[in-house]
Amino acid sequence: MMSMQGMPPVIGPQGYQMQPPIPGPIPEPVINQLPSDKDQLGEYLYPLVEAKAPLHAAKITGMLLEMDVKQIHNILMDSNQLDKWINEGMRILNRTEQT
């Protein structure tokens, strides 16, 4: 079965059918079902970062995945926190590129 966006549905944690991650905060009930595996969390985090910083999405996602799982969950639920950490990642990358 195809989703409204023309993409196949994603089977989420515990077998629930979910839409593929889209830019925007992830609701808390979904966050509570997410695995604590950082590789799998990266699958949810990457599209959100890519929407804000497409050229550096992989590096910034990697930086965010160095945080503890609870903090990643909080970032996934709060777009303001996500923006803050993306901006911090961009600041670090820009400073690194200048040296």
Write up what this structure looks like.
The protein is mainly alpha-helical. It has one domain: c-terminal domain of poly(a) binding protein (Orthogonal Bundle), CATH 1.10.1900. The protein has 5 helices and 2 strands; from the N terminus they run ββααααα. It has helices at residues 28-33, 38-52, 57-64, 69-77, 79-98; strands at 10-11, 17-18. The protein has a two-stranded antiparallel sheet. Mean pLDDT is 78; it is low at 1-14 and 16-20.
> Structural class, judged by helices and strands?
mainly alpha
Report strand %: under 5%
- Major β-sheet annotation: 2 strands, antiparallel
Name the helicity range. Answer: 55-70%
Total number of β-strand segments?
2
Number of self-contained structural domains = 1
Low-confidence stretches: 1-14, 16-20
Q: Whole-number average pLDDT?
A: 78
Task: Kindly identify the CATH topology.
Answer: c-terminal domain of poly(a) binding protein
How many helices in DSSP terms?
5
Following the backbone from N to C, one meets helices and strands in this order, namely: EEHHHHH
Radius of gyration, Cα only, in angstroms?
14 Å
CATH class: Mainly Alpha
From the N-terminal CA to the C-terminal CA, the straight-line distance is: 50 Å
Specify the CATH architecture.
Orthogonal Bundle
Keywords:
single chain; mainly alpha; elongated; c-terminal domain of poly(a) binding protein; 99 residues; disordered N terminus
List the helices and strands and how they pair.
Blueprint: E1 10-11, E2 17-18, H1 28-33, H2 38-52, H3 57-64, H4 69-77, H5 79-98
Antiparallel strand pairs: 1-2
